[in-house]
Amino acid sequence: MLSEETLERLVDAAIKARLNAYAPYSNYCVGAALLMADGRIVTGCNVENASYGLSMCAERSAVFAAAGAGSRTVHACVVVTADGGTPCGACRQVLSEFHDDAHPMQIIAVTPDGTTVMNTWLRDLLPNGFGFGGRTF
Ligand code: THU
Predict the structure, then answer these.
(1) Of 17, 34, 78, 121, which sees the most CB atoms within 10 A?
(2) 78 Cα: distance to centroid of ligand 1 (angstroms)
């Protein structure tokens, strides 16, 4: 479970990342901040495309940025949206790829004023998620 101080740092980072969202089609801006097992905070935002299906969510942007920077294990993910939206199914699955069996992944949905609207665990958002080796939460 995140400390209040760490949660605050993640929320600040996700709010800042949301300012970079490129969402001219949906006008739905999303920011995400990951706490990695190595202590790094890695952020992402949604990036849309005129060919809508090529758009990328904030959470997956952050996961791929982290992996590309050599950091693979996610301990927590904060997502910021105007209405307290939670990670979509695709993002839940991608996050589950980088979870740590010994450390349940905390998922927190926050609005831009810093209000927490959901604070839960990935295993509760993605029960029986797909994985090789019969991995399920
Ligand atoms: N979006 C995210 O960034 N994360 C989610 O978990 C759900 C949706 C983005 C995708 C698209 O740019 C916009 O929100 C509206 O669906």
Answers:
(1) 78
(2) 14
